[in-house]
Amino acid sequence: MKIENEARLIVLDPKHGRILSFNADGGDMKIVLDGVGAVDGIVVDAAKRYMYWTNMGVNTPNTERFELNDGSIERADFDGTNRKVIVPAGATFTPKQLTIDNDHGKLYWCDREGMRVMCSNKDGSNVTTLVQTGEGDADRADELRRCVGIAVDVRRGHIYWTQKGTTRGNVGRIFRAGIALPDGATPANRADIELLWDHLPEPIDMDIDEENGILYWTDRGAAPKGNTVNRADITGKTMPEPQILCDGLKDAIGLTLDLKNKRVFFVDVAGNLYTVNTNGEGFRKLYSGDHVLTGIKYVD
């Protein structure tokens, strides 16, 4: 796959265990890598021409439950070669969305059944838990504790994450905390965690416009506020009511920003790829196919 001369969307398809690539209009679909399993989150290091992705592990047959502590994170070149496990199976339980801080050489992700927000160096070393919302099988059964989507605001020193809650439960939440663990705190006991929004339908994946201080996220819950793409200003002392950019999706999940052209790209598990402008105009479907699409990343 060559992406030097055009913008590309790298998209994950766990139904077929593939990493796909599209152009920014949703055409020219290519299979970048096959046999990657239950993939969920993806990011890129454009300078080194690496892509990183999470694998949730092996699910319980005929269910969407992941009950084994066998998640991992992998890396490969943009063309799918030089594939390498960097965070081995068991170092994270069910890794979901993944993001990257290239300036400081860090990966950040949410661990759903592990009930954690985690990070490591880009080579997979120094795996660290930043937030712990529960521990053990009893807590793991509580869906309110499960962390899913993540964004990092390096400029302001914050991590953001979603705890989606129960399916169609309207108990989803978005939290914020400092990137660094405060002195004397533990991941399970840190006083700097802020609850920003509560009683959301089912917030999932996130991305952030750091320059303008705007957070974007998908929500796969029930209408009218679910199955939407949302955004909100995060620079004030109080959080505003989220703005819904578009609705009518079919279990929305992955989301990525193209800030240069003021576009949001996103997918749903029904195999659809969409775009909308950051002001809510220009919503359209770019592609639909026999896939379950999860993670997505725009590469300029």
Question: What would the keywords be for this entry?
Answer:
48% strand, mainly beta, 4-stranded antiparallel beta sheet, 300 residues, globular, single chain, 1 helix
- Helices and strands: which structural class? mainly beta
Oligomer: single chain
**Helix and strand string, N-terminal first?**
EEEEEEEEEEEHEEEEEEEEEEEEE
Percentage beta strand: over 45%
Helix amount, in percent? under 10%
Shape: globular
Q: Could you tell me the radius of gyration in angstroms?
A: 17 Å
Question: Strand arrangement, largest sheet?
Answer: 3-2-1-24
Q: Give the beta-strand count.
A: 24
Q: Largest beta sheet, briefly? A: 4 strands, antiparallel
What does this structure look like?
- By secondary structure, the protein is mainly beta.
- It has one helix at residues 136-140, and strands spanning 8-13, 18-23, 30-34, 39-45, 50-55, 71-77, 84-92, 95-101, 106-111, 116-121, 128-132, 150-153, 158-163, 172-178, 194-200, 203-209, 214-219, 228-233, 243-246, 252-258, 263-268, 272-277, 284-288, 296-299.
- Helices cover 2% and strands 48% of the residues.
- The strands form 6 sheets. Strands 3-2-1-24 form a 4-stranded antiparallel beta sheet, with no helix packed on it. Strands 4-5-6-7 form a 4-stranded antiparallel beta sheet, with no helix packed on it.
- β20 (252-258) and β21 form a beta hairpin.
- The protein is globular, with a radius of gyration of 17 Å.
SSE layout:
Blueprint: E1 8-13, E2 18-23, E3 30-34, E4 39-45, E5 50-55, E6 71-77, E7 84-92, E8 95-101, E9 106-111, E10 116-121, E11 128-132, H1 136-140, E12 150-153, E13 158-163, E14 172-178, E15 194-200, E16 203-209, E17 214-219, E18 228-233, E19 243-246, E20 252-258, E21 263-268, E22 272-277, E23 284-288, E24 296-299
Antiparallel strand pairs: 1-2, 1-24, 2-3, 4-5, 5-6, 6-7, 8-9, 9-10, 10-11, 12-13, 13-14, 14-15, 16-17, 17-18, 18-19, 20-21, 21-22, 22-23
